[in-house]
From TrEMBL:
Residues 43-108 form the Cupin type-2 domain. Keywords: Metal-binding. One of its GO terms (molecular function) is metal ion binding. This is Cupin domain-containing protein. It comes from Metallosphaera tengchongensis. The keyword Metal-binding applies.
Length: 125
């Protein structure tokens, strides 16, 4: 496929399937099905939504487009707000905890052969 055009509102929104997630939804916008060597995803977290501490083999860049959240990476935590972005390397544990209002962010990832995600059962302090 030479190109692909759509609208975010037309892409199915699914619950994030990491054990311990709540109020977290994902939309896969660009994938290998479009011929890409990477993926672009949009996440929406409801107030108090959580994507718990986890690890995976792919690298990711998260770009906050609405709201504010706490991101735990390794043993550190940071508050990110609209316009902030973070790169997280492969095999680095991380979590996202939303505050009181809706959070939206885009996440760009590479597509290694192993796309598995391992929930760690740890908190984000």
């Amino acid at each position: 496929m030479d190109y692909y055009i759509s609208n975010v509102s037309k892409v199915e929104k699914k619950e994030v399937q990491i054990n311990g997630s709540r109020g977290a939804y994902i939309q896969w916008l660009v994938t290998k099905d479009h011929g890409a060597n990477y993926a672009v995803r949009k996440f929406t977290l409801e107030p108090k939504g959580v994507i718990p501490m986890h690890v995976h083999k792919y690298q990711e860049t998260v770009v906050i487009t609405k709201g504010e959240c706490k991101v735990c990476v390794g043993d550190q935590s940071r508050v990110l707000k609209e316009g902030d972005f973070i790169f997280i390397d492969s095999d680095v544990k991380h979590a996202i905890v939303n505050g009181e209002s809706k959070l939206e962010f885009f996440c760009i990832i590479d597509l290694p052969e192993d796309m598995s995600i391992k929930a760690l059962g740890e908190g984000c302090e």
